[in-house]
Amino acid sequence: MTANGPQTVTTSESDGATSDDAMTDDAPLGSPRVDDAVIESRDLDVYYGDDQALHGINMDIPERKVTALIGPSGCGKSTFLRSINRMNDLIDIARVEGDLYFHGKNVYDEDVDPVALRRKIGMVFQKPNPFPKSIFDNVAYGLRVQGKDDGDVEEKVRTALERAALLDEVEDQLDSSGLDLSGGQQQRLCIARAIAPDPEVILMDEPASALDPVATSKIEDLVEELAEEYTVVIVTHNMQQAARISDKTAVFLTGGHLVEFDDTNKIFENPESDRVEDYITGKFG
Amino acid sequence: MSTEPIDLSREDNNVGSLVDRAAKWIFFACALVTVLTTLAIILVLVDGAIDFFSQVSLVEYLTGTDWSPRDATDPSFGVLPLVWGTLVVTVGSALIALPVGTLTAIYLSEYADERVRRTVKPTLEVLAGIPTIVYGFFALSFITPIIQYFNPDVGTFNVLSGAIVVGIMIIPMVSSISEDAMSAVPDSLRNAAYGLGATKFEVSTQVVLPASLSGILAAYILAISRAIGETMAVTLAVGMLPQITASPFAEMQTMTAYMVEIGTGDASVGSIGYMSLFAIGLTLFLMTFTMNVGSMWVRSRYREEYQ
């Protein structure tokens, strides 16, 4: 349970004084360093076989904020997201170089158990993927595998559903299958499932891309609320969505480079990179 | 703009359309052959069985515990000893094949890397293609001597050897069909569980296994059905002595082995021994038919709708 170690929020590397030394040619424009970083990526490279999907990513993700990762298809934003909780481990040909710190602990250290890491960093996927189990069992699943099902499971399940803004709609049918819900409800069920074991960080991989506009707006409201308690990192290809809900925005462009990372307002109103401006204004991508 | 309506009607002399219609009938005829064969088999079995049951009462057949059809003075037609032989072989083989096959399937689907899977799965399927008489010979020349090494009193023919060899024979069926079912479980479900901090073991047993349950149960039933109908291996390994005993080392006779014995023997057409073939055949058919219907029911009943 190394990921549970003493939770030093910043390491010496992210102190302003030394940050310049750590900067490399791959350093993005903007302000990639923040003071209250919970996740710090340092020169992170990811390869799929011989193809390099990410090039030297340097980025600090602030605590209890929404950080959006945007960029065109194939730019590596989902790859970066999946490298945070080591879901890339599940892909045989994926290989990671560089460092990624979670509370100052490099999650790629040999002594880190990805299972323990994922209990701290929950995930919501692009397509709603409820288990073919009841609504209740879906939400309770994380609690059970994490051994947090002692106390009042029912209370925890209801709280998670409540926070995911789904309880009112499913209160009377907790025993029916999660697959009977609509797409938007299924995605909120998946969010409830992710937050039930109370992780610190929630990773979302285009969570609204398979949903209709009404369901999308519900998910967006939810994301903003979740940031009061959780650190949220969200991949989206929808720039308006990033502008609406995020505090910080990272722009990845083709080839797996992080081009600019800054406050969302800055990125959308006055980006430093011309390429980012072109992308934001729809000139390419 | 032309007001002449375009001609879209079929040209009767068109060769293409002729082929099209002919093809449909040819395909239909082929499908019909299978259906008619099945019907013909049932008809023959039922017809022969009716002759048999005009001489032997159904009650004696179903409840009798003595099967001695060729006893010249007092023939006896209680099918239970044969059913017992079949049952012991089936249950024994299932005890071996279901756990081993299922664990193999989990290994291949969830744990093995691509290279291992590509080697092991075809190997298992080769195992399924070996003629069953070879398995029978394997039982006689390899399994039985091993049993005799531990228990010298065991005879050449014993039901344990038959159960083991049939168990080995149906492992590929269980593992291959189960593996197909597990591989069909979408990765999104595995990712969901991994994302919640589940271990590989938890993902395999709590997510993949339940989601592929219908396929796995269907594999079980098909494998059991195969064990019931298995003939050559058990004829060689189990022997020809119909009796009801609890000893796994005893010689027995299965329904199928009896049919081999009579079918290849000198029972004359029209004799009661000959007619008993049809009764046994019909009984076997009903047993495997029930299993297959059960398999279809299980498939539809436990099918999980995932996306």
Helix content of chain A: 25-40%
| CATH level-1 class of chain A | Alpha Beta
Low-confidence stretches of chain A: 1-24
Distance from N terminus to C terminus of chain B (CA atoms, Å) equals 50 Å
Biggest sheet architecture of chain A: 7 strands, mixed
Cα Rg of chain B: 26 Å
Order of helices and strands of chain A: HEEEEHEEHEHHHHEHEHEEHH
The secondary-structure element order of chain B is HHEEHHHHHHHHHH
Strand order in the largest sheet of chain A: 1-11-10-4-9-8-7
Instruction: Enumerate how many helices of chain B there are, as a single number.
Output: 12
Uncertain runs of chain B are: none
Total E-strand runs of chain B? 2
Derived from helix and strand composition plus strand pairing, the structural class of chain B reads mainly alpha
Q: CATH architecture of chain A, please?
A: 3-Layer(aba) Sandwich
Query: Treating each run of at least 4 consecutive H or I residues as one helix, how many helices of chain A?
Result: 11
Count of domain modules of chain A:
1
Strand content of chain B: under 5%
Mean pLDDT across all residues of chain A, rounded? 87
Mean pLDDT of chain B: 90
Coarse morphology of chain B: flat
- Per DSSP E runs of 2 or more residues, the count of β-strands of chain A stands at 11
